[in-house]
Amino acid sequence: MNAAPPLLTGIVVLFAALVMVGRWLLVNETTTDHLINRTLIWVIGSVLGYAIAAGLGYPDFGQRLFLAVGAGSLSGYFGFVALFGRADPRTWRRHQRSYDAIAATFGTFVLICAGAEAAGLPLHRSVDWERIAWAAVYLVLAWTGVLLGRACVRELRNAAPTRRERLTYSALLLFGVYSVDSAFYAMLQLISGGPPGRPGTVGVVGSFLGMAVLTALIAIPLINAIIVRAELDRTGRQCRRLRPLWLDLTDAVPEVVLHSADAARQGSAARLYRMTIEIGDALLHLRQFAPDTAAPHADTISSFAMRIAEAVEHKRRGLPVPNRTGHPRSAIRPPADDRTAELRNLLALSREWPKARAAVETPADA
Questions:
Q1: Taking a C-beta distance cutoff of 8 angstroms, is the pair 292, 329 a contact?
Q2: CA 214 to CA 207: how far, in whole Å?
Q3: Going by C-beta distance under 8 Å and a sequence separation of 6 or more, which residues neighbour residue 75?
Q4: 137 touches 196 (CB < 8 A)
Q5: Can you tell me the distance from the alpha carbon of 343 to that of 275, in angstroms, rounded to the nearest whole number?
Q6: Which of 58, 158, 176, 287 is the most buried (most CB within 10 A)?
């Protein structure tokens, strides 16, 4: 760790911390998401633990603290790979608790030994516990990389993966290969008598660059979530265009609103579907308030928008329901053969809605 350039360390850790916070807020719904986010926390915690200890003048203790805390990230990484490798969901949680227990036991052992060494008790003269601990980490890291690579190859061979899936699996495959390669290189150094946990500048820089690439990969769902939350995707833009019409109609007919506990966390597709349903229900309620006039109406979007605005105004002002003639011109909902056509009509109505609403407003409203 002490061979890493401080600037590189700071940039990578800050990047990982920002991604971690964003993912906990926006991408933390599935078990896989939770595992990834938890692993990021352990990674950041291990690096910060080393930085604090080294800054206080205890770099050796910081190195051992990094090893102890980093066991939590290795547990999460192995659990993610096992789940990605199609582990049985019915037994996965029990297995993950076992991984966590092993990591906690390992970390506690390292901390006890590190504390004893810091207190002046030379345990390493009796048994080279630190070398053994790092060897165990490298073996688990290599095996996890093998499992990850095998799972990625299997997914890439499956029928017709999308281009995004192919890129994701390819990147994960490369990371799996890197895990095996870096663990093998570090193990060779360990066997040849090199200091445990100190792979040199090249190894440390490679580790941080690998961490940066992996963090960028798992930031992709976060970017997608931000785009959806900001309604910058195609469906989100349609929601934005419908919102003025939707707000006015649901304000006029509030009973059509479909209340949901997780409405704020819905994706743009679910939000758009809910808005179209509520607009349609509101139009059904407002149809009885649409006035029947002797003047013929052309079935244009602007005329439909005007009739809707008149119906909303009649209901808002508490005017009596007009007598019905049964003439088709009293309809306020454009005809549509399917949901695609209906959405197209509603988007067209939303464009005409501000003008229609302004045209029927009473002077007191203006």
A1: yes
A2: 10
A3: 42, 96, 99, 100, 102, 103
A4: no
A5: 10
A6: 176
For residue 86, give every residue at least 6 positions away whose Cβ sits within 8 Å of its Cβ, in sequence order, or none. 151
- Could you identify the residue written with the tokens 């906690």? 104
Tokens 């011109």 correspond to: 329
Is 0.70 surpassed by the pTM of this model?
yes
Q: What is the pLDDT of residues 115-142, one digit of tens each?
A: 888 888 888 788 889 999 999 999 999 9
Using the 8-state DSSP alphabet, how is residue 287 labeled?
G
C-beta separation of 347 from 241 below 8 A: yes
Q: 37-61: string of b/e by CB count within 10 Å (b at 16+)?
A: bbbbbbbbbbbebbbebbeeebeeb
- The CATH fold assigned to 6-227 is Rhopdopsin 7-helix transmembrane proteins (1.20.1070)
Q: Which long-range contacts (CB under 8 A, 24 or more apart) does 203-207 make?
A: 203/3, 204/1, 204/3, 204/4, 205/3, 205/4, 205/5, 205/8, 206/178, 206/182, 207/182
Condensed to tens digits (0 to 9), the pLDDT of residues 330-359 reads 567 777 778 888 899 899 999 999 998 888
Residue spans per domain, the chain? 6-227, 232-360
